[in-house]
Structure formats: structure tokens, C-alpha cells
Specification:
This protein is an alpha+beta fold. It has one domain. The longest helix is centred in the C-terminal third of the chain and has 14 residues. The radius of gyration is 20 Å and the shape is globular.
């Protein structure tokens, strides 16, 4: 029999946004990245971000300044993408959350969640419109300028930053020497390759279009991806009770 044990290891957390002290390999384009994301805050520009990370999929819609809709795939769907997630765990979450996607609406200080076809109002912290923590940079944060990057049939202005992996999980046999396992994990962490975060910006609009987290510089096998679109007809209203 085995059990999972959370430890600091070689896989970066899928939704860590910008990490203080991150490093880049060449000229610093931090200002261009900041400008691109500041455009998302303008009141006349609603946008939608699609998040994928393993089996997890979510859609976040945002109408500035304070209207957000979050739709997450059913617990059963995204747990199937997590190695070691047991059938009993999927069963418990599916029982409470239901088989349908989980939808949350937040307008100002009011938040509603739809579970099993029922809307419930509850207190909640602010939902990040990108599905990620706010953009935070220190004086040491630097983005490399990648110039033209071809991705999924389109050419973008690219920016990249690298940082050490921060979190992961290992499977430990019952009765195993935990201290020895932790030492092995610590060594693996120190020797682990960096995690790369790549920002792809539309050259015409200057808006971010893709944000990709990967364990190599190539973009064909991402750990997670966020794709931004900008529908002009987006509406978010309180749910009908």
C-alpha cells in the first residue's frame, strides 16, 4: 500500500504566476510584459482566459472592474488527470459537487456558486480574473526578449523567465524512512532543471494571448497554459434565483 506525501520537489505549482527573484537569460523586457498585462485592467475591455493544467480545465471571464465568472470542469474530470487520484476520492467530490461543471459568479462583494444545479450565495475572497495570483515583480524580476515566436499557427512577440521548481509530490511506501526520502527529494530539487514561463503577446494589439509554463524551453509539452481571448459581447449578471 502506498500514500502520497506533499514535499518541495521538482514540479512547479501550476498556478504560480511571477516568482520573486526569477532570472532571465538576456535583455530585460519586463516593462513590455507589465504594459501588456496592464491593458487587461481597462474598463472597456472584457476578456476570457482558458486555463489547462493536466486534467484541470477552467474558464475565467472578466468584465472590469469587478465582474468575474469562473467555470471549472467537474471534479471527476480533472481528478482523472492527477496521477494517484483514487476512485473513492473522485466519488466523494462528485457526490458533493455533482457531475456538472462548477460555476461561480462574483460581482463586487457578492459571490454565488452553482452546485448540483442550485445557486448559493456565500462570502468569498476576490477571484483572480486570470485564475492566478496578481502580477507581482521585484527589482530582480527580468524577462528575456524572444522576438518572434511561432505558436499554433501564429507569430507573437515572446518573453520568457525561468525560476526554480517549487512544489511537487512523491509516493512513499508505508514503513519507509521519511528522513531519507526527504534528503533524496532535497538533492533532486537542487539538481532539477528550471521551469520556464513564456508570455506570447499579439503584435498588433499588444495584448497577452498565451501564457505557458513548461519544464523546457520548447512549447510543445506545457505543464500549464492560459489562452486569452477578448469577446466584445461578454455579459456577467447575478444568477436568477
Amino acid at each position: 500500500m502506498r500514500r502520497r506525501r506533499d514535499v518541495s520537489l521538482a514540479v512547479a505549482a501550476a498556478f504560480t504566476f511571477f516568482v520573486a527573484g526569477s532570472t532571465a537569460a538576456s535583455a530585460d523586457c519586463r516593462g513590455e510584459v507589465e504594459t501588456a498585462f496592464q491593458k487587461l485592467e481597462k474598463p472597456h475591455r472584457p476578456y476570457r482566459s482558458g486555463v489547462t493544467a493536466g486534467g484541470y480545465r477552467a474558464t475565467i471571464e472578466f468584465i472590469p472592474p469587478d465582474r468575474v465568472r469562473l467555470i471549472v470542469d467537474s471534479a471527476n474530470d480533472w481528478l482523472e488527470g492527477i496521477p494517484g487520484s483514487a476512485n473513492w476520492l473522485r466519488g466523494i467530490l462528485a457526490y458533493f459537487a455533482g457531475p456538472d461543471p462548477i460555476e461561480t459568479i462574483q460581482i463586487g462583494n457578492r459571490t454565488w456558486k452553482r452546485v448540483n444545479q442550485k445557486w448559493l450565495e456565500y462570502r468569498s475572497p476576490k477571484i483572480s480574473p486570470t485564475g492566478l495570483p496578481p502580477l507581482e515583480m521585484t527589482s530582480e524580476t527580468a524577462f528575456a526578449c524572444l522576438e518572434d515566436i511561432a505558436f499554433e499557427g501564429k507569430t507573437y512577440a515572446g518573453y520568457r523567465i525561468s525560476f526554480p521548481p517549487t512544489r511537487g509530490a512523491v509516493v512513499v511506501e508505508f514503513g519507509a524512512d521519511i528522513s531519507k526520502t526527504q534528503e533524496e527529494v532535497s538533492r533532486a530539487w537542487k539538481n532539477a532543471p528550471p521551469i520556464w514561463r513564456t508570455i506570447l503577446v499579439d503584435r498588433e494589439t499588444g495584448l497577452p494571448e498565451n501564457q505557458i509554463l513548461s519544464d523546457k524551453e520548447e512549447l510543445d509539452s506545457p505543464i500549464s497554459k492560459i489562452h486569452y481571448t477578448y469577446p466584445s459581447d461578454l455579459t456577467i449578471e447575478p444568477p436568477a434565483q
